[in-house]
Specification:
50% of the residues lie in helices and 16% in strands. By secondary structure, it is α+β, with helices and mostly antiparallel strands. The chain has three domains: 52 residues, no CATH class; 134 residues, no CATH class; 109 residues, Endonuclease, Chain A. A four-stranded mixed sheet has the order 7-8-9-10, sandwiched between helices. A three-stranded antiparallel sheet has the order 1-3-2. α5 runs parallel beside α6, α6 packs parallel to α8 and α9 packs across α12. The relative contact order is 0.07. The model has no long low-confidence stretch (mean pLDDT 88).
């Protein structure tokens, strides 16, 4: 390759990657190992680690470190508050470090980069590689990991921002929390605490499932249930039923696993069902798995419960 073309190619790569270039980049220009060594020497490229170099002609910035980390290994992603700043989330500037998330077994050591190793990094946890070579953790994964650094108040604010900007959905956040929840992952615990503290979010998470069930019930020609039906217990306390058929005293709860798989939540659900049963209601439950895997079968079960309580098809509601 002519010298002018070689220099132009090197300049283009350095410009695109914040002054970072790798041995693989040089090889992609058709340079031999000897020619690459010559370019490195003539350009005064500083070795960050094996196969990764930075140009003194480019300013040392956090983005340069991010690019260096990501170009050093294909499985590296920039995460935590660093990714939060890149996504533009509020409250992420309290920490200016450059954080990289890598799977266990990946060796990464770059001065100025804080490396976090994790056994659970699913494809959905990482966004696509940018043109500058940087890979960020996805918006939900970023929020979860950064929660351990910024705390619950800033996490709540950033979640509100992400939802308002349509970066993710509440269902995705809940699913991310459930998938990555682990006692040794502090961010997951803070993240879960924030979500559990918001009753409005709990209502929204459940409502999507309820809408799907309600639509399927209509399509099946079943009597329409009373949604969020209130029943007053003998002690005067209110009990809210997701889907109720008062005529047949049939009560169906639509359970999202995030809100109902803990020991405390399970005990509360059983107590509530017992109180409804004592008042003559038949409490039943539909889980997200029931709805996702076999919604038709779930609605058929609702129909069978209605018939067992005295409903006759074709005789109205």
């Amino acid at each position: 390759m002519p010298l002018a073309s070689t220099n132009a190619g090197v300049d283009a790569l350095l410009h695109a990657h914040h002054g970072v270039i790798t041995s693989s980049d040089l090889a992609s220009l058709g340079l031999s190992a000897r020619q690459s060594s010559h370019i490195i020497r003539v350009r005064g490229l500083a070795r960050l680690r094996r196969g990764v170099y930075i140009s003194p002609a480019h300013p040392a910035t956090p983005q340069q470190l991010m690019a260096a980390a990501c170009l050093a290994h294909p499985e590296v992603a920039i995460g935590f508050t660093t990714a939060g700043r890149e996504w533009g989330y509020r409250g992420m500037t309290v920490d200016r470090a450059v954080h990289a998330l890598v799977p266990h077994g990946v060796q990464l050591s770059i001065p100025g980069v804080v490396v976090h190793r994790c056994r659970r990094i699913d494809p959905v946890d990482v966004a696509g590689r940018r043109r500058d070579g940087i890979r960020l953790t996805s918006p939900p994964r970023t929020l979860l990991d950064a929660a351990s650094i910024v705390g619950p108040d800033a996490t709540e604010s950033a979640i509100e921002q992400a939802l308002s900007e349509s970066r993710c959905t509440l269902e995705t956040l809940v699913a991310t929390s459930g998938r990555l929840r682990h006692h040794s992952r502090p961010g997951a615990l803070v993240f879960e605490q924030v979500i559990l503290s918001r009753e409005a979010w709990r209502r929204s998470a459940r409502s999507d499932l309820e809408v799907r069930v309600h639509r399927a019930i209509d399509q099946a020609g079943l009597p329409r249930p009373s949604v969020n039906h209130l029943v007053v217990a003998p002690d005067g306390s209110p009990l809210e039923i997701d889907l109720a058929w008062p005529t047949w005293t049939l009560a169906y709860e639509v359970d999202h696993p995030f809100w109902h798989d803990g020991r405390r939540e399970s005990r509360r659900d059983k107590e509530r069902d017992r109180r409804l049963g004592a008042m003559g209601w038949l409490p039943q439950r539909l889980t997200q798995e029931d709805i996702d895997d076999d919604l038709v079968g779930a609605v058929n079960d609702v129909a069978a419960s209605l018939r067992a309580r005295g409903w006759t098809p074709g005789r109205g509601d």
